[in-house]
Sequence to fold (169 residues):
Amino acid sequence: MNLKIISLFFFSAFLNLTVTAQEISISEKKVAVKIKAYIKENYPTATRIKYYQEVINDTIFIESEFKFRGNKYAVMFYNEALYEVEIFLAFKDIPTPAQKAIKSTLDSLFTRHKILVCQEVNPRTNLLYEITVEGTSEKSTAFWELFFTPSGRLIKKTEFIVRPIPSHF
Fold:
């Protein structure tokens, strides 16, 4: 499951937040024509297109995940308007100076950590690196999303709680 936190605000008031998220797969038939047209126009050779409804703190987004030019993308929409573009990458593909700064920050925040997902967020407009980690501190282990500038400076740290998908069983 791909979990993302959408807010890309400044460091101050938003550094330590807790967010709940739930993502469920939806049929292409349930996706607005405008969203499908956007994907087709901007990513004409996209393959393996999947759609999800993602609820983050009671706000509903539609997300499309697909492969395009050898990269995995996640494009998120709110009220049928583009909200965010993410490109998945390996941590080793982040430029070395930023990598070192990010690793140093993770080492200072957690006694143990495992990087789960790395993404470039909005690479054409306001590039940030979103790093999802399982981090352990002296208190407990939790899942975190951290946002870093291209230089590797932490601007936001968010703990997220995954809500279970309701079951009829």
